[in-house]
Design brief:
This is S26 family signal peptidase. It is built from one helix and six strands. With 91 residues, it is mainly beta. The chain has one domain: Umud Fragment, subunit A, CATH 2.10.109.
Length: 91
């Protein structure tokens, strides 16, 4: 999720919150059930969400794994640069 988030950032996620396009979300993939990822929600797709990483050249996301199950909405970075994560709707 670079440049929005980097390895070792500590974030606050709201489980059960309704995702909206542009939100940063915690997801699980049907193809990789043991893996959790943080991605940007783009649109609802079937029974899940189409999600993309903020870096299109270095991201494993719905382009390769299909729709994802959204588990939580990530709203804040707590460390190292505290602040609210802003929505970034994609065209």
């Amino acid at each position: 999720m670079s440049p929005t988030l980097r390895d070792a950032d500590v974030v606050l996620a709201r489980f059960g919150a309704a995702a909206r396009p542009g939100d940063v979300v915690l997801v699980r993939w049907a193809a990789r059930p043991g893996q959790l990822s943080v991605k940007r929600a783009v649109r609802r797709a079937g029974t899940g969400w189409w999600v993309l990483g903020d870096n299109p050249y270095g991201s494993t996301d719905s382009r390769g794994l299909g729709e994802a199950e959204v588990l939580a909405v990530v709203g804040w970075r707590l460390w190292p640069r505290p602040g609210r994560l802003r929505s970034n709707p994609r065209p």
